[in-house]
Amino acid sequence: MDIQYALLGYLSWQPFSGYDLKKLISESDLFYWSGNNNQIYNSLVDLYKRGLVSKEVQLQESLPSKKIYTITQEGRAELHRQMLAAPELPDCHNNFLIQLAWAGDLSPEEIDTLLASYEEEISVQLRMRQVRAGVQPASDPGSEARQPIPNRTAREQYLWQKIAENMLAQYQHELDWVRQVRSDLSASTGWTGCAWRALDEDQS
Amino acid sequence: MDIQYALLGYLSWQPFSGYDLKKLISESDLFYWSGNNNQIYNSLVDLYKRGLVSKEVQLQESLPSKKIYTITQEGRAELHRQMLAAPELPDCHNNFLIQLAWAGDLSPEEIDTLLASYEEEISVQLRMRQVRAGVQPASDPGSEARQPIPNRTAREQYLWQKIAENMLAQYQHELDWVRQVRSDLSASTGWTGCAWRALDEDQS
DNA sequence: CTTGTCATGTAAGAGGTTACATGATTCG
DNA sequence: CGAATCATGTAACCTCTTACATGACAAG
Description:
Two copies of one chain form a homodimer.
Chain A: H1 3-11, E1 16-17, H2 18-27, H3 38-49, E2 53-60, E3 63-71, H4 73-83, E4 91-93, H5 95-101, H6 108-133, H7 154-191, H8 195-203
Helix pairs in contact in A: 1-3, 6-7
The structure holds a DNA duplex (28 and 28 nucleotides).
C-alpha cells in the first residue's frame, strides 16, 4: 500500500478532501495510478480507521458535501516511520522487452515497425512529461511550470526536482536505447540484406 | 497476463515441464516474478484449455511424474499475434522516489543515510545482474556467461543482449542518480550547514 | 538429521481494475 | 442538448502473493 503513504504525505502539507487528493495524484507523474477513485476513497477510510487522519464533513449548498481529512499526530508519526524505512528496489515492468525477446523470427521490416512504434510512444510520453515538469523547449516563454502547492522548504523542492529528473532521464534513456537498437539493426540489414538471413538459416 | 506470453515463448524453443519453465523464469532477470509457482502452473492449465499447448505426462520411477508441454500450431499463431501487438509503455514502480518525496523534513544526516542505503542496494543488485548477464570485471577469466538455451538465431541473440543491456543501464542510471543527489546535498550542507536550515525556516 | 532437489498442486487473501450509481451545476 | 465539474461511493472481477501440502531421494 504505497498509495496510502502518498495520501498521508499530501495531508502532511494541509487538509484535503478525497477529491482533491485524487486530482493531486492523477496530475502528478510520480504516482502510477489506474485513474480511478475507488482506491483512494478506500484508503482514506482505512487511514481513518487506523487513526492516522481525522475527518470533517463540510456541507455545501447545491453541491455534494465534502469530507475534509486532516493528518493526526499518529499519522505524522507513521509518516516519519515510513520515511526512514529500508528503501525498496524499483521494479520496472517493461512488457515491451518481453515482447521483443520472442520477436527474433519476425522479418527485419516487422521488427523495425515494432521498434518504431515503441519509439514513438516513448517519445510522446517523454514530451508530455517534460511539459508537465516545466521543461521548456528553449523558446515558448509563456506557460509557467505548474506549482501545485508552493511554500515547501528549499530541500523538499530540490528533492522533487531530482525525482522528476530521475523519471525523465529514464524515458530519455529508453528512447536512446530504442534508437540505437533500430540503427544497429538497419545497419546490419543494410550492408548485406541476406547476411542475417544466412546466419539465421545456418543455425536453425 | 504477460507470464503466459513468456511461457509460450520458451515453449516455442522446445517442450518443457512446468518445473523447467519455473526455473527458466526465476533464473532470468527479464521476468519480474514473485518466486512462487502457482502462477506458472495455473497459466499452463489455462494455455492448455485454450489449446495453445499440448500436454504429455511422463511417469518416472521413484520421482514425481512430469507434465511435458508442447506448443501447438494455434500457440505459435497466438505468439506471432502477440509479437506484433502495439507496444506498451514500461511502468516503473519506484517506491523509493515516493518515500523520498516526503523526506524533506528529515535531517541532512538522516536523508544521507537513506540515500546511502538505497545506493548500496542498487549497487548490489547491479553487480548481481552484471554477473548473471556475463559482464566480467576485466580480470577473472573463468566462469563463462550462462547460456541457458543455445542454438538461437543471431538476431535473437542480439536482441537478448540488448534487452540485458537495457536493464543493466537502468540500474546504472539509478546508481549515478543517487550518487549525484548525495553529493549535491552534502556539498550544500558542506559550505553552510545552516544555509539550508535558514532557507527552510524562512518559508515554513 | 536437516537441507535441497525434483515435481506438482490447493486455498486464502491482498491488491488493483473496471464498471456502475447518484445528482445538481456550469460551459459550449 | 450534451459534456464536464464537483463529490462520493458500491460491486464484481481479475491478478498476484503467501502459505501450505505431499513424498521420495541425495548430499553435507
